[in-house]
């Protein structure tokens, strides 16, 4: 469920460097299962190094705001870059290990970690796969994985910095303590009556081919063995997820898949029968009850399936496209296939129709990877397409029906609640998950008829007899839609089953013909004559030029129980357009048709670019792990980095990012640079000369002003219509920047430096400074020669901050500025016309950002100021209570998402409740949810989500919290009343009563009569009626007795008149507000403010 259990200041210092401002995110102790609509949008992600990355947005579209060094890593610098739409953050002491492929680069893919649910709100551990020694403090070893000579482990994020210090040796670019590799244990998920006849299964049944004697392992979310269609089918089961439900299917996906493989149709009178109704099943539960799992579970499941003797393994699951990271699951598929002969049938994924979207483990070379078609054999739009990324291999291999597939419905599963049943015991689903078991069942039919066949023969037979769709490319359909009837009766198949010649380098005048031997094998009793033709298309879809693809010996005869060989000769010297060629070699003879997919990339005009890096001492740098140089074509987005010293690039204009790490830990220094428009029009050498690096900074008006804390140095370039970026975050004195030699068109490239400046205290901060600069400086088109521009105070907006005191020994931080002993004031000069969010955090004296003891934090809304504008901002002035200001990151605060109601109302907003929200660390918290007077749920956290019934009703949510980190609002009791019924998603109506008494900078009011504003705040995005009730009561004995106060006015904005008696110390308030639609709130605030 949604939790915000421990408010921790993840970062105050440095977060103002992002124009988007500051985010302080709550952490949780356990995984979250709440719907995403109920979650606040701010996140943090702890890396394996212990550093925390602060992001805004949501799991699918996140923006990195800042990075907070882990324990003992103060001063660490970071590289932040965007690649293929994902945001990466690399600590400098990890770069060399990533470059040396000792550490999985996915561990620093913040976007991937968020999508996988590995953020700090969702879990307090990081799942890893370690090669070699796997015991270390902070690690919990879970599962031995013999195929990778290691084990799956979990790393406690609280121990991550210490673990990294023990195992990583960045100077030697190696790992220590017996660990030789570290991978992310990535997230894997399920990839979601006419289909069986569509692939010819009934015809195979007539010939006695039903899969009898063949065992298919279904690695999925479990199987419901009690389903009538699967009675007696499961002969072995094992749970790899640790689920309380064991091998049972509480999700529903695995049962549906199993029914497609081997369901006998008992519950439908034989209507919904699987492909191989007499095959037996191994139930390997590798996906949890939410349909998700870890790579280590899948790898362990694959090893188990092979050990149990499965001839075919169905994997209707997939991870994410790897984008250059090592693909451990695919490597395991290939290794186990080679060792055992087991055929792994794997879903291509549902990320189509774009190219390069096939996910692991569907990218495995030896896997039979399956795309999806509809009932008319047209490609399903969602079906993932090849080529693989990276590698450019031809995938998927085949297709099968995957649209509207009716199969077994697991009783009591999530699918049973979420989808309408078909004929009581079935459900209709679409996806490559549904296509894959059609192929696994077909493989079982073939294996039953050919006991000696292993993975190569099964794969070749199914591919060679597939039916192609002329309107689809080989990178969409592979060999085509399987035809098991043809595979079962046609004895001839060919190896290799695919001719994938990958890339032939430009220019093509000196190319050599590529001769591929095609060996046709005949397991029948009669010789089969074949006529071979190559049908290949050029990049535009036209027939390839004559002579480019030829079969010199077009007619062969394959003897009974023998082989015959023909040759496909591809000659890229033949004049034709450059680019991707694709098609088939088709062998025909009587009723025999054998197709072999063919692909060849005739490289477009491209050149070798040699990368030379010169160090500050003028000596060429040969240690490649300390160098970072990447190229991205600004028109196509094609990118590359040198393997060694050379990179191959198509002709064009490139955005080039360069970096060099020098020195030694912990005093690393860095040289960075960017070329916005580097031209590749021939073989050449790209030189990055660190001697040309210059310090960064600003010449400012105020005496003693200097950069301190962290700076953000960024390069932003429009590449193929999207902005690609590279940013370095760290202490500015450690960086030098090399000016550009090229320029981009106006508006296509930005060099940006964002930093704090003030009267430096010599410790990297601004302690005692009466002023601070919040600077974001940009330069268009290139990196200029002048990297220390002159900025006048008159160019900034000026914000005068006043921070009141709300407790003893209290210090405040304004973004990176602090500590400030409260009450405090400071002048901030901000770059104008930018949406700043300078948050204020309160700490116990002597502690601050990076420490766990954050007392309270205030998140403002975006504020944009004009040049020369002067603004006064007051902070931490009471009354502190619930607030509903529509914050761009955290709201809405009370929502309905299907079967859940989520609550995350900020309970401790200060007086200025219209432009900010406030959270405070509670000592105790209790939430209780009622529907129509009946209690539905309870939580001991100040934010959570509750599962609720579908029917409409009146809800009451009570929140009771206490805190001792402040002298005021020490006890809050609030009850919200609202109506709700099941909707897809929606903001619920919620009210809050806000008080604004006149208080001094210690939150004290005068005794005697007082009248001050009282406002009813409504959560934006919901529907409200007319306010019918607003009452206020006051107490001077901490709520033991109450007396009514007089409320004046109408509407949402009114005033309340009270009398503060002499001799009392605190004022407590109780208010009730309600409208004529039944929405109401009652708030009780003990010690709302003090008296003097």
Automatic annotation (TrEMBL):
Belongs to the peptidase S8 family. GO terms for biological process: proteolysis. Residues 1-25 form the signal peptide. PANTHER family: PEPTIDASE S8, SERINE PROTEASE APRX. InterPro entries: Peptidase_S8/S53_dom, Peptidase_S8/S53_dom_sf, Peptidase_S8_Asp-AS, Peptidase_S8_His-AS, Peptidase_S8_Ser-AS, Peptidase_S8_subtilisin-like, Peptidase_S8_subtilisin-rel, S8_Vpr-like. Residues 211-480 form the Peptidase S8/S53 domain. GO terms for molecular function: serine-type endopeptidase activity. The lineage of its organism: Bacteria, Bacillati, Actinomycetota, Actinomycetes, Micromonosporales. It comes from the Bacteria. SUPFAM superfamilies: Subtilisin-like (SSF52743). This is Serine protease. It comes from Virgisporangium aurantiacum. PROSITE patterns: SUBTILASE (PS51892), SUBTILASE_ASP (PS00136), SUBTILASE_HIS (PS00137), SUBTILASE_SER (PS00138). Pfam families: Peptidase_S8. Keywords: Hydrolase, Protease, Serine protease, Signal. The active site is at 220 (charge relay system), 253 (charge relay system), 433 (charge relay system). CDD domains: Peptidases_S8_subtilisin_Vpr-like.
